[in-house]
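Instructor's aside before we start: the two examples that follow are unrelated to each other. I chose them only because their records fit on one page, so don't look for a connection. First example below.
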Amino acid sequence: MAVASSADRRRGPLRARTTAAFTGLTAGFVVALSLLMPATAGHADPKPSVKQLEKELAELGKESDKLIEDYYHGRREQQKAEKAEKAAREKLEAAQQVYDRESTQLRAMAVSEYIGGRPSHLTLIADSGQYTSTMSRMALSEFLVSQQEARLSGFARVRDEHERAQREAADRAKELDATADDIDERRKKAEKLIEKIKDKIDQLHKAPGRRSDGTFLPQLPGGSDNITPRMRLVKTLIEKRFDVPFGIGCYRAIQDGGQHPLGRACDFMLSRGGMMPTAAEIERGHEISEWAIKNARRLGIMYVIYRQRIWHVSTGGWRVMTDRGGTTANHYDHPHISVY
């Protein structure tokens, strides 16, 4: 029967904890995905009601929360492993310094004995790096013998500590790598499920005033924000799905020939004061634009403008717009969304 090494015994507890955590994670993820899988051909269920979809969303939300909780638990485990690995590395460095110092002193003693004509096993120890408990003491004084034995004993302890520190550092590094891989996989699963939840939420909503042929009835603006119900739905969904910290501008009284005075357009700002957005905010603008295009026909979105380009639902694809002379005028600091 194979005997487990000391390294395997040290890794055992961490591996057991990781396995237990991932067993629960995998089970939860399978349940969540089963809610999203379509029925097989020939056994299609009736179209779910809004109440059923809301129930599914609630279950998915619980699974998502569990995945996130497991993810942060993994992060804490990683931080512990990083701390232990750092301590082991520092311990190894300290042991190496002592090891080098003791080796130098031991070699000096061996050389001194050799020059003095008193060869012993100490000379062989210094040259080969091997250790022995037997020495030829016949030609040495009692004082030198005791001095050598004390030095050899100390050197052996340093050597053993040095080897233990090396093994511990290697074990911690392996644990750290395994934990990091587990966390990355957990994060990807959580993000995938969260995205499915968000898509499911979007599917619950249809643009008001849609005719059976896919066209849309005209709507009047209303409410304190002076926008149409269709525009308000799009604005609300984007606010829930994306963080828009620099504000959303919709109704404008100025008659410029656009959709703002009609309450059918909103600007989702990525910066303030006409400043060029950061790289992260530019990416957020792309995400908002892509979401609008993906949901355009269902939500009654007519066109999207972003970064001096326009996408129209009737033609599809982006086309470049003429230069209007500024960051905001060219929509570099915000996506513009107009609805029917």
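Example two begins here.
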Amino acid sequence: MSEIMKAVQLHEFGGPEVLRYEDAPRPGASVGEVLVRVHAAGLNPPDLYLRDGYRALPPEWQPEATFPMILGTDVSGIVAAVGDDVTGFSVGDEVYSMVRFPDDLMKGSSAYAEYVCVPASELALKPAGIDHTQAAGAPMSLLTAWQFLVELGHDGANPFQPFPHAPVPLDGKTVLVNGAGGGVGHLLVQVAKWRGARVIAVASGKHEALLRDLGADQFIDYTTTSLETIAQAADVVVEAAGGPKMERFLGTIKQGGALFLVNPLGFSGHDEAARRGITVSSTQVRSNGGQLAIVGGLLNNGTIRVAIDSTYPLAEAAAAHQRASQGSIQGKIVLIVD
């Protein structure tokens, strides 16, 4: 096996044009790790934030960069080698993972490459019923939906609040998902539906057909319909789009309900939420191979589906990032590795 591989590396922060497809050293599996030959790698918002140097964050939160770095967390591929003290995986197994997140949040988890080393605890067998493209689109977005709505699955510190996030029972409840057409949103819709909820999906009109097909009971085109039309209709709102004015969703939640913020930065409605008796909570998704093994069963039998917005060859990662920056993504963008 060659000691050199192809990868997409950063030598400086900036726009999509700073992503360079070039030779890089091929990693080797250390104790407790599995070397994966990558077939596909999914794009996620943290990839874009890191490429840009997290300039939207306060200066003290911005990374101290060590270049070159390789972005990306989500992979699907085949086991190429197994390190010492690894059980449960063998050379040739098809696997998928979210790699070392958020541990490598500020330095890249090295998924945009032909090979990546993955801690065995973060790895799961790829569901046989889906291909590598769909599997690479799943990990971060589906783990986010799972850890918000089903099981947190860890006791790591919560960077957004002083208390751990706690999912709530959804059976028979009404769940509103904002940003329902996006990578996390379309999976939140399906997880909530699987948990027995009535689901209201909020997105632009282009996403209606997909979201109804995925199980949404009601669709709201936010470009034509005011949220005031569903005043106090939801038990739980999951805000997956982020941005300004997230406080407006408080008016859609019943007394004693919950507002879950996938990206809470900029939310300023805590006092109003307290007056309304609404719990506001957030969490940061964490790698978890055990949870990927569980959700793999739902992917395998079609209970949950990963919508693919577009695919790009690994060498065209810059074009993929350009597409991601344009917004109005339907599902996931995935890089295909030859």
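The radius of gyration is 20 Å.
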